[in-house]
Amino acid sequence: MKSRADVVIVGGGISGAAIAYNLAKKGVKHIVVLEKSYQGSGSTGRCGAGIRQQWGTEMNCRLSKLSNEYFEKAKEELEYHGDLEFKQGGYLILASTDSELELFRRNVRLQNKLGIRSQLISNEEAKEIVPFLVTDEIVGATYHEKDGHLNPFTTLDAFVRAAKRMGVTYLTHTEVTKINVQKGRVVGVETTAGNIATDTVVNAAGGYSKVVADLAGVAIPTYSERHQILVTTPINPILKPMVMSFSKNIYTQQVPHGSIIMGRSDASEPRDLNNRSSWQFLDEMAKTVTSLLPPLERVRVVRAWAGQYNLTPDKQPILGEVPDVKGFYLAVGFSGHGFMFAPATGILLSEMILKEKLTIDVSALGLNRFSKGELIIEPSVV
Amino acid sequence: MCKEKRTVACRCEDVTLDEIRDYIGMGYTDLEELKRVLRISMGRCQGKTCLPIVMRELSIATGVPLSEMKPTTFRPPTVGILLGDLAKGGLVHEE
Q1: Inter-CA distances, A287 with A67, A247, A281, A305, Å
Q2: Closest residue to A233, CB basis, from B32, B37, B44
Q3: Residues in B lying within 8 Å of A, measured between beta carbons
Q4: With an 8 Å Cβ cutoff, are A39 and B86 in contact?
Q5: What is the reported pLDDT for B93?
Q6: Integer Cα distance of A87 and A147 in angstroms
Q7: pLDDT single digits (tens) B45-60
């Protein structure tokens, strides 16, 4: 155990691993990543494995575009031995009402302006992409062919292994118990494996972001909500894109392995960090998915699981240094999209910590936006 | 091809004993992490076949006794159920 570090990152998920990787690549020598359980135990390993660029806010569009450009070359860049299962089968996002379609029209205009080549399409065009899609309650859709899938376990592993090769200390089963702050500056952390003196701590704790911020005496407006997913047995390829509907509360995609993943949310969930799945979810999901994609009636469910969305009031992440506590950085509140934004998170946080010019100006995503009331709400979240 | 290469330990996801040993040798010594990179115990039997084999291999490699090893989480449903059957619902009490 190191007694001193240049940077301590709390959270061994994809955000923490990507930040560590980028810092190490830029020459930072003593980096420690702390993971309280095993690698991939939190939101990264429980996520829906989708990657998309179709968003309703400029910040989310920019973060996802930068991330997607990275994902396209990630295997080579990270020199990973395994398969990241990168698949660009597109995202087909369904509109159920005219007002939803109008919102999508605005989103596509924004996306196109930012270089994301999404398009508004008709039901007939949607059926060309997914022939068995039931469009009775659909009025149109948007589609972007570069969206798709990436294996969260192997992608996380690729970042962790690349970071370790450059000397990053990645400690699993090690929990932070206190973040010490003196005169408005971070001075160190206390962990279950000993104390580490440091002037830079990053909170990348996913579902536990608020718990970790509390350890430094910093209040942040994030909360965690249980979301559930199920996966089927592998079958022959029948579904090319991710099919998503906000009003029907579903996203579903066939992954390269052949199995079909599907998830939904429930805003009435107790916010108690519960990671067990429920039978109600199986019931609701089966009804929703078979009414939209009838051939899936004949596919078997293998497993269901749950994980945490770490939400913010505007469904956009909080990125940057805490104004009142020098050296305490936040990479939290990804609102269900921390996995797909991870490359951008890694690049931007490393730039912030090293006081470099930012690849994307994300000053609008600082913690102080909440006290100032400067919120731009992301509408496109399941 | 050498015979040992084809000793299949995980029949659901087609993972061989040699692959498991290779990965343990590469440093994947946490059962939970091994599960996630190799998909062992993620198939339709959820590890009923492979888990004891994988845990034994891990125990031999790391020296951690089996009695101190925690198996992976068994997730619902216990057996594969058709989405169509789930959607229709089972016991419905009619008024």
Answers
A1: 34, 14, 10, 18
A2: B44
A3: 26, 30, 32-33, 36-37, 39, 42-44, 46, 75-77, 80-84, 86-87, 89
A4: no
A5: 56
A6: 8
A7: 999 999 999 999 999 9
Q: Which of B29, B74, B83, B91 to mutate to test the interface with A (most CBs of A within 10 A)?
A: B83
| Window from A98-112, A151-165, A366-380 with minimum mean pLDDT | A366-380
- Residue A267 is predicted with a pLDDT of 83
Which of B33, B44, B86 is facing A39, going by the closest CB pair?
B33
Question: How much is the mean pLDDT over chain A?
Answer: 97
How far, in Å, CA of A334 to CA of A340, rounded? 10
Among A355, A370, A257, A349, CA closest to A8:
A349
CB contact under 8 A, A282 and B82: no
Query: How far apart, in whole angstroms, are the C-alpha atoms of residue A170 and residue A38?
Result: 11
pTM for this model (two decimals): 0.96
Nearest CB among A82, A290, A299 relative to B37 is that of A82
Mutation target to probe the B interface, by most B beta carbons within 10 A, among A170, A254, A287, A300 is A300
How far is residue A233's CA from residue B82's CA, in Å, rounded to a whole number?
10
Residue A132 pLDDT level (bands cut at 50, 70, 90)? very high
Whether A282 sits inside 8 A of B77 (CB atoms) is yes
Measured over all CA atoms, what is the biggest interatomic distance in chain B, rounded to whole angstroms?
65
Confidence of residue B31 (pLDDT cuts 50, 70, 90): very high
Task: Yes or no: say if B72 and B51 are a contact pair by the CB < 8 Å rule.
Answer: yes
Do residues A61 and A111 lie in contact, with contact meaning Cβ atoms separated by under 8 Å?
yes
User: Is residue A184 scored above 90 in pLDDT?
Assistant: yes
ipTM value of the model? 0.90
